[in-house]
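Researcher: Let's continue the batch. This sequence belongs to Cell surface protein, and it's 176 residues. Same format as the previous ones, please.
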Amino acid sequence: MTYINTMNVKATISGISNTDIKYTYSNSMMQMAPNTSFDLPIPTSNQSAATRVSEPLKPGKYRLQLVVNARTDNQGKYEAQVDNKTARYKYQWTFDQEFTISDNQAQKLNDSDPTVKKEKDWTWRLFVIGILLLVLFLIILLWKRRKKSQKEEEEKQALREKIEAQEKIIDDLNKK
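Model: Same format as before. Here are the structure tokens for Cell surface protein:
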């Protein structure tokens, strides 16, 4: 056997610690050389051509159930659903294992996955907005103080002029 043709892979990852989590993957047209291994990426959400966005992987306990069927054969003893039709295969391998993803591993995997929509860190944005609001508040405060002191200065000047006018009247009356 030079390679395994028409390999059908169905993988399901279910959350044990969070039963709401379920990731699935299927591909009915894979090929592989015998006695080889490879990493099988399983998307963490539906990826349409338009979005190409996955949900971030969450830390916790998971269970992987993997079924691989190979070499289509009408007389094969293994059955699998492919495109809503039953197909028969000559070979089948199953894999069932529980595993744990730590907080650290989840963070590293999410950081390295370009399809994961990154959660926006609003801390620095809120800090900048806060500083801008503070500066705006100070500008308004200084502007109001300046306007108030200008008004007070104008009132003082008007009062000085009145006093000078009254002093002039008093001086004129005293001279008579």
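Researcher: Any comment?
Model: The chain has a mean pLDDT of 87.
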